[in-house]
Design goal:
274 residues; alpha+beta; Ribonuclease Rh, Chain A; two-stranded antiparallel sheet; 10 helices
């Protein structure tokens, strides 16, 4: 091989290597360093808003019985009760009706088994206290002498829990109903007849006078035998409608279903053992 040919081959090889290097793609630039994510401050979720206390639930339209005792007669049958041991002629319930209870159709609504057992066993002091405002508590203690025996606990557990409201509204309505009864011609009739007999017809007529025609049709008398005497121990009033803290007793009586008169006649008992 002559020197001229060998030189030519070297030149060709050098040109081919340069062409290959020219055609090879350039190496990619090194990746740019990624900036770290911005620091975040963890924020606790906001607490759920607590709604402001709304108005108390109103009682539904319903059938009820208002039971009003004539306390001197009741105490003839239960003289050992605390409220009876202190009953004297000057006390309010010596000449006014006393609140026994306000009764919806159902009993023991949402009441624990323990409370129901205690109530049915007469262990009223074991029942939860009824929380009431100061003014209402004072009014209830006058209207319901049985609070001295924790009657209000029994009445709330058995009946009030089915009224549809809290105890404050239940007892405010109960006291208002009794107050309307005691400011009426019905109470005047009983006060005028203390020591003498009254008939169911006279009582119903007094309701009609006080609360409108037909109001007396839903009223019943209860009596008890006391030796040779028959004494009126209680009257029950059938009511129908919405009962709130300012109830219309006349309307509630007139819209209720009529009932039997119960005891036909009995003595309005005076204070003290007869």
């Amino acid at each position: 091989m002559n020197s001229r040919f060998l030189l030519l081959m070297v030149v060709v090889a050098l040109l081919g290597a340069g062409l290959v290097l020219w055609l090879r793609p350039a190496a990619p630039p090194p990746p740019a360093a990624q900036a770290p994510p911005p620091a975040t401050t963890e924020v606790a979720p906001a607490p759920a808003a607590v709604p402001a206390e709304g108005p108390r639930a109103a009682a539904p339209r319903q059938f009820l019985i208002l039971a009003a005792s004539w306390q001197p007669a009741f105490c003839e049958t239960a003289p050992g009760k605390p409220e009876c041991r202190t009953l004297g002629a000057g006390r309010h319930d010596a000449s006014h009706f006393a609140l026994h209870g306000l009764w919806p159709r159902d009993d023991y609504c949402g009441v624990s088994a323990t409370d129901r057992e205690d109530d049915e066993a007469g262990l009223w002091s074991s029942l939860p206290p009824v929380e009431l405002g100061t003014a209402l508590r004072a009014a209830l203690e006058q209207a319901m002498p049985g609070t001295r025996s924790q009657l209000e606990r029994h009445e709330w557990i058995k009946h009030g829990t089915c009224f549809g409201t809290d105890a404050e509204i239940y007892y405010a309505a109960s006291v208002a109903l009794l107050d309307a009864l005691n400011r009426s011609a019905v109470r005047d009739l009983f006060a005028a007849r203390i020591g003498r007999e009254v008939t169911s017809e006279e009582v119903r007529d007094a309701f009609d006078v006080a609360f409108g025609a037909g109001a007396g049709d839903s009223v019943k008398l209860a009596c008890a035998e006391d030796g040779a005497r028959r004494i009126v121990t209680e009257i029950t009033l059938g009511l129908y409608g919405v009962v709130d803290a300012s109830p219309d007793l006349g309307m509630l009586l007139r819209t209720a279903n009529p009932t039997s008169p119960g005891c036909r006649r009995g003595i309005v008992d005076p204070v003290g053992a007869q």
